Amino acid sequence: MPTGHRKDTEVKTLELKIPPPVVAIVLVALMWFLAWLTPSLSFELPARRLVVWALVLCALCIGLPATTAFRRARTTVHPMHPEQASTLVTSGVYRFTRNPMYVGILLLLAAVAAHLGSVLALLGLPAFVFWIGRFQIAPEERALRAKFGSAYDDYTRAVRRWL
């Protein structure tokens, strides 16, 4: 067996296995636990409630239209089966980001971190970006490239993965 083959196989087994909302819920629990465990690492945030609600509102303004666009296009919103996509959605919020649903979840995690006011809780944000990028977006992109070919390649050149 070539060196690294086993590791690559083990990593691939994590792809598309944990739905993004579950990843987010686990991270919220971890963020809360870290904030509770390390109160000395808390920070004051002026207008905390306003910041939290602004982040939630932004998350909803990005995530809900993204979901609606998929439903209108009659394509799957199921994150575990990107190969079942029937349409490449490139309009609406998808003109600005290829992953508006994940951007929405990230903004919700930012709202939680702001609410907790914990330096360590902020680690949930890059953790989400890493996990989703590696174990969700990468295999989704492979599936979409296989299904939609050059149309998907053109889209990836025109629109950023996040923002």
Biggest sheet overview = none
Strand content: under 5%
Low-confidence stretches: none
Count the beta strands.
0
Q: What is the string of SSEs from the N terminus onward?
A: HHHHHH
Spatial extent as radius of gyration: 18 Å
For the record, give the distance between the C-alpha atoms at the N and C termini, rounded to a whole number.
40 Å
- SS-based class: mainly alpha
Number of helices: 6
Q: Share of helix among residues? A: 55-70%
**Shape by Cα distribution:** globular
Average pLDDT taken over every residue: 94
Attribute tags:
163 residues; mainly alpha; 6 helices
List the topology elements:
Layout: H1 5-12, H2 20-37, H3 48-72, H4 100-116, H5 124-148, H6 150-158
Helix pairs in contact: 2-4, 2-5, 3-4, 4-5, 5-6
Describe the structure.
With 163 residues, the chain is mainly alpha-helical. The protein has a domain at 47-158. The protein is 63% helix and 0% strand. The chain has helices spanning 5-12, 20-37, 48-72, 100-116, 124-148, 150-158.
